[in-house]
Amino acid sequence: MTRYRVILTVAILVLGAAGGGYYWWHQQQNQLPADIASGNGRIEAEEVHVAAKYAGRVAEVTVEEGDTVAAGQVLARMDTAELDASLARAKALVAQAQQDVAEARAQIAKQESELKFADQELGRAKFLVQKGHVSRERLDRRQSEYDTAKAVHTAAIARLVSTQRAVESAEAEAKRIQTQIDDSVLKAPRAGRIQYRLAEPGEVLPGGGKVVTLLDLTDVYMTIFLPTAQVGRVLVGSDARIILDAISQYVIPAQVSFVAAEAQFTPRAVETRSEREKLMFRIKVKIDPALLRQHMQKVKTGVPGEAYVLLGPDATWPDSLQVKLPPPGQ
Hints:
This protein has helices spanning 2-30, 81-131, 136-183, 228-231, 273-276, 289-294; strands spanning 36-51, 56-61, 68-69, 74-78, 185-187, 192-197, 204-205, 210-227, 239-244, 252-259, 280-287, 304-310. It is of the alpha+beta class. A hairpin with a 7-residue loop joins strand 9 (239-244) and strand 10.
C-alpha cells in the first residue's frame, strides 16, 4: 500500500510540474515586448446603405442577404410607371418645341425675302422721285412697306430665340425625368456582400428609404483601445497584426488607419497622473484591401480577436507575430 502511495505521489508531482511548466511557458508566450501594444476587438467592415433617392414603390429586389455583388450591379428597382408617362409627355413637348423652331426659321427666311424686296422697291422709289417720275406719296408708301417688313423680320428673329429657349427648357425637363428614372435603378456603389435586405417588392418608401445594406469587404478593420502611455507612440500607418480567435494559427498583416484625437473613456476629474493613465483612445487597425480581395469569400464580420501595434519605427515583430497566411484558395 505504501508503495502505491509513493507512486501516486510521484505521479501527482510530475503532473504538477508539467502543468506548472506549461503555465510558465504559456505566460512567457503571452508576454509582449515593451514596444508592442495590443487590444481586443472584433472584425468590422464599412457599411454602405443603398437607399431610394426619391419616394416610391419598390418594384424588385434582385439580391438576397449574403450575396456577393460587384460594383455597379443592380440591387433593386423602383416603380417608374408615373415617371415613364411624364418622360413621354416631356419628349412630346421637346418635339413640339423643335417644330416651332423650324417654323420660326422658315418665317425668318420668308421675312428676309420680303424685307429685301421692300428695300429694293424703296431704293427704286427714291431714284424715281429724284428724277421726278413718281410722286412723293409713292416714296412714302414704299418707306412704310419697308419699315413694316423690317419690323416683321425683327419679330420673327425674336420668336426664333423664344422657341429655341422653349426647346432647351423642354429638353432639360426630359433630362431631369430621365435622371429620376435612372436613379430608380439602385446599383451597388462598390463590391461587397449584402448584409441586410431591408425592403421588399410592393413596399412604399420615402425619399432616402433604405433597401439593402452592403458590406465593403475591401474595407475591413478592427477597433481597439489603448491607454495614454501607449497611444502617444502610435502613428497612422504604423505596422500592425491581427489574430482572430476562429483562426488563431494565422497572423494577419494590417496597418493603423485611425488614431482618435480625444479620449473615449475619461474620468470625471483628470488631475493626477494615475487618473490620466486611465484615459483610453480609439485605434482602427485596417487590413490591406489587396489581401482581402484574395480571401473575400472567407471574410466574416463580428469575429473576435486581438490586434497588435508596433509602438516605434525601430520596433520589430517577435517570431510569434510574424505574418502567417492561408493559401489564397483556402
